[in-house]
Every structure is written in C-alpha cells, then in structure tokens.
Amino acid sequence: MSDYYEVLGVSRDASDDEIKKAYRKLARKLHPDVAGADSEDAFKEVTAAYQTLSDPEKRRRYDMGGDTAGFGGAGMGDFGGFSDIFETFFGGATQTGPVPRGRPGPDTLTSLTVSLDEVVAGCTKTLSIATAVTCPTCHGSCCTPGTSPRTCDACGGRGSVQRMARSFFGQTITTVPCTACAGHGTIIPDPCAECGGEGRVRTHVKKDIRVPAGIKEGVRLRMSGEGEAGPGGGPAGDLYIEVHVKAHPVFQRSGDDLVTTVRVPMTAAVLGETFTLDTFDGVREVSIPAGTQPGDVITLRGLGVGVLHRDSRGDLRIRVEVVVPRNLDANQRGLIEEFARSRGDERVEPKRSDEGDGVFSRLRNKFAGRA
C-alpha cells in the first residue's frame, strides 16, 4: 500500500489545512474529467489518502499501523437511504416487505503476541480462531438438503400483517411483522440437522495474519469479511487482531530505533576497542573510539525497526556504560597513580562557587559594587 503522506506530497506532521490544500490541488489535476480516464486510479488513491488523513481518528490509526476503520463501528455513511433512516427512528412499523433471513455476522476480536525481532522485519503468523462459518451442509439456506423454505400461510409471504384497533381517535390499522415467520415471509419446514436451521456452525479456523514491519503495541489489524458468518447465509463480519509485543532482554524500542546498553571496561573506553554484538541482522562488529565517555552513544545505521508503510529502517543505538574497577591490587593502584601523575590528575578541584558566573555570584558582585 502506498504511503498516504507521499501520495498527497505532505510531511507526516502536516496540518489539516496543508492536507486539504494538497488534496484540492491534486484532485483538480487528476480528476478524470480533466486528465482523462487514465488518471482514475491515481485520483482514487489521492481521495483515499485524503479521507484517511483528514479524519483525526483515522489518521491516528494509520500512523500507528492499524486499519482506519473502527472496531464494529458504523456511521451515517452506512445507511442505505431514506427508508433505512425512517426505520431507525420509527422501528419496524414501516415494513412493507419480507425481512431477509440472512443477517450480517458480528465482528471478531482476537489477540496476537509477537516478538521484537518479528516487529523489526514483519512476519506472517498463523492463528487458530473460534468462530462461526457458513454451514457446509445447507450452505446457509437453513434447510435440509433437497428441501426449501415454504411461503408463510399467516402473511402470504409478505412478512407483515395488518391489525385493526380501536382507540380514542377511532379505528386504526397498523402494519406489524408477522409473528409466525418472524417477518421473513417464509418458514423452514425441515431445518438442517447440522446447524439446527441457523445456517452456520461454530468451529475453529486457521488464519494467516500478516504483521507489517514497524507495527506498534496495541494496534488492531483488520481483515474485512473474515469475522463470524451471519445467520441465514448472511455476510461475515470483520476480524480484528490486537497486536502485543513481547519485551526483549537486550533491545528496547524507541520510535523506529532499537536501543541497548553495553558495559565497557574503563581501559577499553580510554584506549578504544572493537567488540561483536549479536543483532537481529546477525553478528556485527562495533568499534569503541578511544576516549569514549560514559553515556556516549554509538549508532549503527539501518539496523533498527522497519518504518511503517516505508521501505526503510531506523537505527540501532548503543549506549556506553563505562565500568570503573572497585578493587585494585597494589600493583594496579600504583600504575593508575603513575598515570594520574603523568596527566596532572592527582587532585579533584571542583569549581568554586565564587568563581562561577551563576545568579548568586552576580548578585554578590552587584551589592559589592562590582560590575
């Protein structure tokens, strides 16, 4: 998948206005009515990028590596038309035809734990998931093979019946769902024995999950149409996989970089040395420059975590911890003392407070009449 920021030609920290301006410019340029039919795919890609990055929640999910759709969510864009909206407010009283037996299946949420090295390069994991699938015997029809649904005698296949009632306002006629067929207009005279007439059965299925390089802790991946099958042959919901990353004993993640600490003898820090480090990319030689100070960082370029949505990687940063020996024999102590004398380091001389240029020094000088 293309990097949406690159598609719009903006930086990853672009403001909403910058994203909007970039989209308007590209949309005018790539619209098929202007650029011809050959630009249709590019126009769709630009529009998809804008729809994601202009929505704060979708943009947040995209930046974290997950899908831009919410778990089990639906907005006004999911309403089919005015009749659907009307039914949302007024219930089933407007039913004018049979209700389809098939209903959408629910979304499924599961979790997946991966190691840090799998996050670095990306991986494919196989999960066994408890779910509902379309009945293999009746294929979602709910009927015993060789049979079929029968028209409901109570409603004549309409799925609804009219009822007359008297009230203070006079005689009224209302249309309500048929209770004999639950509004479907048909009944199942011979339900499938395997699924009990539900059109689906519960089982365990194996799914191959592609985990992209650079994914972060807690991100949910979405697999459209891979959730539970709907009853009565209805469409399946979506499958969401929440990713968790195991802690590593040597390396920690910091953004797209990997960070670790190595303990270096004092002599190696002074004189310089080369050692080997077992990284996720194999054994690497690391050079410690002479005169390395405690806390110095050595960087190995391109050995960090894969950058999400890009063909690049962060760095491996190695923090140096200099180990000072605690116990010296007489010979070792003599050598160190000789070294100190040769450098003039026999005494520790901290900077005196009255020699500094701090606040209190300046105040004291001011009251003493000194500039």
UniProtKB/TrEMBL annotation:
Localization: Cytoplasm
A GO molecular-function descriptor: ATP binding
InterPro entries (UniProt xref): DnaJ, DnaJ_C, DnaJ_domain, DnaJ_domain_CS, HSP40/DnaJ_pept-bd, HSP_DnaJ_Cys-rich_dom, HSP_DnaJ_Cys-rich_dom_sf, J_dom_sf
GO process annotations (BP): DNA replication; protein refolding; response to heat
Signal peptide: none
Alphabetized Pfam families for the sequence: DnaJ, DnaJ_C, DnaJ_CXXCXGXG
CC annotations in GO: cytoplasm
Cofactor detail note: Binds 2 Zn(2+) ions per monomer.
Tree of life domain: Bacteria
ZnF locations on chain (CR-type): 122-204
Residues the entry annotates as binding Zn(2+) 2: C152, C155, C178, C181
Binding site for Zn(2+) 1: C135, C138, C192, C195
CR-type domain boundaries: 122-204
Keywords: Chaperone, Cytoplasm, DNA replication, Metal-binding, Repeat, Stress response, Zinc, Zinc-finger
Cofactor needs: Zn(2+)
Residue span(s) of domain J: 3-66
Its biological purpose: Participates actively in the response to hyperosmotic and heat shock by preventing the aggregation of stress-denatured proteins and by disaggregating proteins, also in an autonomous, DnaK-independent fashion. Unfolded proteins bind initially to DnaJ; upon interaction with the DnaJ-bound protein, DnaK hydrolyzes its bound ATP, resulting in the formation of a stable complex. GrpE releases ADP from DnaK; ATP binding to DnaK triggers the release of the substrate protein, thus completing the reaction cycle.
HAMAP family (alphabetical): DnaJ
Family: Belongs to the DnaJ family.
Domain notes: The J domain is necessary and sufficient to stimulate DnaK ATPase activity. Zinc center 1 plays an important role in the autonomous, DnaK-independent chaperone activity of DnaJ. Zinc center 2 is essential for interaction with DnaK and for DnaJ activity.
Subunit structure of this chain's protein: Homodimer.
Name this polypeptide is given: Chaperone protein DnaJ
The organism of origin for this protein: Nanchangia anserum
